[in-house]
Amino acid sequence: MLTNQIYLLFSAVLIALGLAAFFLARARASHLRMNGTAMVAQPDQYAWFSVLSTAGPALLAAALGAFVLLLLGADIPILYLLGASLAVAVIGLLVGLVQVRPDFHARQAIERVIHGILAAAALVSIVTTLGILISIVFEAVRFFQMQGFWDFITGTTWAPGNSFLAAAGRGAENASAAQFGSVPLFAGTFIITLIAMLVAIPVGLLAAIYMAEFAPARVRNLAKPVLEVLAGIPTVVYGFFAAITVAPIIVDVAGFFGLEASFNNALAPGIVMGIMIIPFISSLSDDVINAVPDSMRQGSLALGMTKAETIASVVLPAATPGIISASLLAVSRALGETMIVVMAAGMRPNLTANPLEDMTTVTVRIVAALTGDQEFESAETLSAFALGLVLFVVTLALNMVSVIMIRRFREKYRTNDL
Amino acid sequence: MSQSFDEITAQLRNRHRKSAWLKWVSMGALALAASFLVMFIADMLVKGLPAFQQAQIQVEVSYSERSQEMPPAAVSEDVHRLVSRGFLRTLPRRMRDNPDLMGVTRLEWVLADSAVDQYLKGNHSALKESQRPVIDELAKQGRAELKFNTRFFTSGDSKMPELAGIAAAAMGTVMTLIVTMLVCFPIGVMTAVYLEEFAYDNWLTRTIEININNLAAIPSILFGLLGLAIYINFFGVPRSTPLVGGLTLALMTLPVIIITTRTALRSVPDAIRQAAFGVGCSRWQVVRDHVLPVSLPGILTGSIIGMAQAMGETAPLIIIGMVAFIPDVSVSFTDAATVMPAQIFTWAGEPDRAFVEKTAGGILVLLAVLISLNATAVWMRKKFERRW
């Protein structure tokens, strides 16, 4: 029998058992009540309790069993496992029916079960984070066993070379040893992020100042959704825009000034990434500026300050922690951004400060390492996880700092309002 | 030291000028951001609209034994390089399927080669100098023209630009999003209900909350690493399939759904809960019969936005192999598939210039879907917004 059919049959039988539990328990409860017994719960509640007691333990048993089998790698056919869990379902059905007693608080029991299910759902997010951490750390450790951690952090040459041959047992054939020094990748990432921030922060912040302090409500109501369109454009589209439209323009402009630019220059992805981040900065800064209490503006204006002076010396300094934290969030976005750099930045690790040259980033190398044909066990493939780990740690730290800062900022003004 | 009125007025004027200057500069910044959007959309339209048209030429096709063996012989020598090789390849099959065709010679509109297509659209074309007069002549007779490109919407990917279409990718997107929706909608709503309605304030719930915010800010490519290491390498889910793609995107979309659902639940006034508790409902009954129905539009709005985000996501899908070359539309959750953004990425990497317009055409379709999804969400928010 095909595995698909087994699963189909399993679900069909389980659903049938559940329906049987529902109708049998309800019939039993209605019958009892009809005979004049006072019951603490409604027949439907007994029915639902039976359904839960039938399907819940069975599904739990199947899931646990599958997980344990997978972990131990035991070779027990899936058929037995599902058969066993159906047996659990039948037992659950009988238990459910026996529980249809006048003094059984079916509603409270359902309540407890549902509370448990909801809590389990909430744990999924924790499991996901743990999953990311475990999967990345686990593979990264394997990488660091092959390549030194210190070389990875401080090396200035990234040349995976033919490390995939070594993994295939043909290491002797390649003369040059693979080198995994991540400094050029992080330098490239940093420069592209810097360019993006140079575009996004001034434009985004000024746009937020206009929307919060100057704009009439009509303009504001129009501008916000328009900027949100900018935020909703998929990154692959920005990548295409950067590679096909912006990069040639930059090459032409650089040529006009007598400079030579590569078609994979770092400026194009940087600028386009900046455009992508503008709405992010502007909407967060807008919130922060709006959160500055009006009494501060009134005080400043009452002293005879002009609007610009009020903004520059009262509103913005008050909003600075929030603006910085928005910028940090934007930096963490730019560090992790993949599609734009994959499509528009170069593939060559290049340690330079000239944005007209091509350079590569961490995310580009992750994609490159995992889309090749090499063995999964090779150092190059595993290097993606090492890079991912650093990316994870850095973005997590940035996010934490900015979340804490914005919370402090909010709290500060909450007390002032009193 | 005292100042004269004139000095003070001049100073004041200067300060007001500075104030006006800030206003104009900040307005300029907003206009700049908006003009980026306009420029961007105009650029995509200019590059992408030609993709919806494809050159066809009218040639004499002779169905014979000889063309069964050697399809290029079905059309005359001077045009057989102008006709799409993809069309010629289907000839033997057409003859087999329809034996009546044998021995017939007739004028037909057939798909032209992409070089002809690019030439007719006035782009740089690989067409040989000797062939240009032939096409010019055909065009003058009205036998070569640009027609609406239905293939673009009905066929899968192809290495020949004139045959390539987005149908396979669209189907893959739909199936991937179905998996994403089935996984993350129930879990997301359940998590939000737990945190808003059931949970006590203890370390566990605080950890979950911090976690959700962190998940929302993790770079998307790391979810691809998770999918690769856990789903594919550990659980053995087949690579490149809508199943693994959907599962990966679900984890990414989960925080969005949880956060928006919590906002929706929080906007339900406590009076409704108190009234329900007052008549003796249990907590779950309050949630099921009163809180959830009232907040459903808000939850759906958040889910639409989350789905739109998932739909545009590419980076994690590249990692788990969803950039496969898919020429046929498949409808199975465990077959290799590709999605719209991944298809765009693949086309963007094709060296053939004719693929540039295909890429931009695909982008236009994707943007149209995304903008209409977001517009639906905004419309729903407006329509169902309630002030208590």
From TrEMBL, chain A:
<protein>
    <recommendedName>
        <fullName>Phosphate transport system permease protein</fullName>
    </recommendedName>
</protein>
<dbReference type="InterPro" id="IPR011864">
    <property type="entry name" value="Phosphate_PstC"/>
</dbReference>
<dbReference type="GO" id="GO:0005886">
    <property type="term" value="C:plasma membrane"/>
</dbReference>
<feature type="transmembrane region" description="Helical">
    <location>
        <begin position="6"/>
        <end position="25"/>
    </location>
</feature>
<dbReference type="InterPro" id="IPR035906">
    <property type="entry name" value="MetI-like_sf"/>
</dbReference>
<dbReference type="GO" id="GO:0005315">
    <property type="term" value="F:phosphate transmembrane transporter activity"/>
</dbReference>
<keyword id="KW-0997">Cell inner membrane</keyword>
<comment type="function">
    <text>Part of the binding-protein-dependent transport system for phosphate; probably responsible for the translocation of the substrate across the membrane.</text>
</comment>
<feature type="transmembrane region" description="Helical">
    <location>
        <begin position="78"/>
        <end position="100"/>
    </location>
</feature>
<keyword id="KW-1133">Transmembrane helix</keyword>
<dbReference type="InterPro" id="IPR000515">
    <property type="entry name" value="MetI-like"/>
</dbReference>
<feature type="transmembrane region" description="Helical">
    <location>
        <begin position="46"/>
        <end position="72"/>
    </location>
</feature>
<keyword id="KW-0812">Transmembrane</keyword>
<dbReference type="Pfam" id="PF00528">
    <property type="entry name" value="BPD_transp_1"/>
</dbReference>
<feature type="transmembrane region" description="Helical">
    <location>
        <begin position="229"/>
        <end position="251"/>
    </location>
</feature>
<feature type="transmembrane region" description="Helical">
    <location>
        <begin position="310"/>
        <end position="331"/>
    </location>
</feature>
<keyword id="KW-0592">Phosphate transport</keyword>
<keyword id="KW-0813">Transport</keyword>
<feature type="transmembrane region" description="Helical">
    <location>
        <begin position="271"/>
        <end position="289"/>
    </location>
</feature>
<feature type="domain" description="ABC transmembrane type-1">
    <location>
        <begin position="186"/>
        <end position="402"/>
    </location>
</feature>
<feature type="transmembrane region" description="Helical">
    <location>
        <begin position="112"/>
        <end position="138"/>
    </location>
</feature>
<feature type="transmembrane region" description="Helical">
    <location>
        <begin position="185"/>
        <end position="209"/>
    </location>
</feature>
TrEMBL record, chain B:
<dbReference type="Pfam" id="PF11812">
    <property type="entry name" value="DUF3333"/>
</dbReference>
<dbReference type="GO" id="GO:0005886">
    <property type="term" value="C:plasma membrane"/>
</dbReference>
<dbReference type="InterPro" id="IPR035906">
    <property type="entry name" value="MetI-like_sf"/>
</dbReference>
<dbReference type="InterPro" id="IPR000515">
    <property type="entry name" value="MetI-like"/>
</dbReference>
<feature type="transmembrane region" description="Helical">
    <location>
        <begin position="243"/>
        <end position="265"/>
    </location>
</feature>
<comment type="similarity">
    <text>Belongs to the binding-protein-dependent transport system permease family. CysTW subfamily.</text>
</comment>
<keyword id="KW-0812">Transmembrane</keyword>
<feature type="transmembrane region" description="Helical">
    <location>
        <begin position="360"/>
        <end position="380"/>
    </location>
</feature>
<keyword id="KW-1003">Cell membrane</keyword>
<feature type="transmembrane region" description="Helical">
    <location>
        <begin position="215"/>
        <end position="237"/>
    </location>
</feature>
<dbReference type="GO" id="GO:0005315">
    <property type="term" value="F:phosphate transmembrane transporter activity"/>
</dbReference>
<feature type="transmembrane region" description="Helical">
    <location>
        <begin position="317"/>
        <end position="340"/>
    </location>
</feature>
<dbReference type="GO" id="GO:0035435">
    <property type="term" value="P:phosphate ion transmembrane transport"/>
</dbReference>
<feature type="transmembrane region" description="Helical">
    <location>
        <begin position="21"/>
        <end position="42"/>
    </location>
</feature>
<keyword id="KW-0472">Membrane</keyword>
<dbReference type="InterPro" id="IPR005672">
    <property type="entry name" value="Phosphate_PstA"/>
</dbReference>
<protein>
    <recommendedName>
        <fullName>Phosphate transport system permease protein PstA</fullName>
    </recommendedName>
</protein>
<feature type="domain" description="ABC transmembrane type-1">
    <location>
        <begin position="170"/>
        <end position="376"/>
    </location>
</feature>
<keyword id="KW-0813">Transport</keyword>
<dbReference type="InterPro" id="IPR024573">
    <property type="entry name" value="DUF3333"/>
</dbReference>
<keyword id="KW-1133">Transmembrane helix</keyword>
<dbReference type="Pfam" id="PF00528">
    <property type="entry name" value="BPD_transp_1"/>
</dbReference>
